Amino acid sequence: MPREIITLQVGQCGNQIGGEFWKQLCREHGIEPNGALRSLDEQQTHDENDSSTTNPSSPSPSSAPISPNGKTTTIDDRKDVFFYQSDDEHYIPRALLIDLEPRVVNKLRGKASKYKDLFNPENCFVAADGGGAGNNWASGFRQGEQHHETVLDMIDREADNSDSLEGFVLCHSIAGGTGSGMGSYLLEALNDHFPKKLTQTYSVFPNWDQSQSDVVVQPYNSVLALKRLTLNADAVVVLDNTALNQIAVDRLRIDNPTVDQLNSLVATIMAASTTTLRYPGYMNNDLIGLLASLIPTPRCHFLMTGYTPLVIQGSQKNIRKTTVLDVMRRLTQPKNIMVSANTRPGSGCYISILNIIQGNDIDPTQIHKALQRIRERQLINFIPWGPASIQVALARSSPFIENRHCVSGFMLANHTSMAELFERLLRQYDRIRKRNAFLDSYRKEPMFQESLDEFDDARETVQSLVDEYKACEKSNYLDYGMNGGI
Length: 486
Description:
Layout: E1 4-10, H1 11-29, H2 40-53, E2 83-85, E3 91-93, E4 95-99, H3 103-109, E5 124-126, H4 137-146, H5 148-160, E6 165-173, H6 178-193, E7 198-205, H7 218-232, E8 235-240, H8 241-250, H9 259-273, H10 275-278, H11 287-292, E9 302-308, H12 324-331, E10 350-358, H13 364-376, E11 390-395, E12 408-415, H14 418-433, H15 440-443, H16 453-471
Helix pairs in contact: 1-3, 1-6, 1-9, 4-6, 6-7, 7-14, 7-16, 8-9, 12-13, 14-16
């Protein structure tokens, strides 16, 4: 029985990365942009066209496996986790597209979009006035309250349409207004409305370089959103814009990466993190199994990612030989980590690591040899109070995509250096908060009309998160909080 997951795309950034995510899932499951399953004849025609037009650096679909009698073999995947079928057997994403301004949602569903017929139009919510939140967390939160009934009705309808709902995935940014503010409200609402369901987020953290940011109040919005991510989410996959830009420039040799190229990179990460849910094996084939081993304590649930080998559409990159050892070694190298924090030995330690190794002919003995080699070379520092081991899940590759590399790897890790990210944010927050700068637009909203206590409370929550991550590095962490701590 599938354990269904409902995806909420909130705000401009959330809908942009969500749109790319669904394109990637459609490619991996052989689903046409209109939701129809691609037939074998169409697949072969698609391949012939692609052989002459496809960019050499981007994966092109290959035909579905064919049995000796010439018929297509059954593909053992779980489309039902993220899609459901309509009465005409077209696949429809279990997704809600939510925004306070119409531009991005209209682009996803407009006449010019190939995927305009993929989404359920009843699952698209755009505020009637279309004015947005003006990069103001408080405005987004207030409008979330205003539209509570409409959005919760949409979520309830999708939940009722599921046989065995496991949880929710929220795609958003923490720096703006809608994804940050309305996303925060929805996290609280999901916690109240579905207390026994998991909530995982893909949260885009802003560029820390002020010269690259066009939102002067992003420290306020980020701290307020981070409080809700700490208290109301079960797991947060951190997508750090600073690190993504650096990887695009340094590793993919793209001088000025565009938003579309970065979103394509994010979609690759999101799809890779759900591989074991959609192409299940013996382990990690549901969300609770995936997250349980990564998050030993409730607060420390912010996860970093790594992926290798990286190939992005529009970039030129040589195809290299890949082995299990090479992939697993590269996954923990700091240059492949998609968070701008120092993960080198001697700077913090890993709380947990899950590597998802993807390929169709991987010998498990290669995994054991790779783990032994990594252990012998002492390449990774682990916490002193827990097991020092890398968990590995094997996942099959999609038969619909021709992988140019034999082996690819994805890492989900919990690392104490995540505290660096939060400390950097707090420094930016303190810089403008001590001057009470840019607060007028917040004071106009109901939450801040009487006092600014919510700011101080949010900062205290984030500081306690930093303290707990630092405490994780000590051998007496299991006693943390017993003597007056949090």
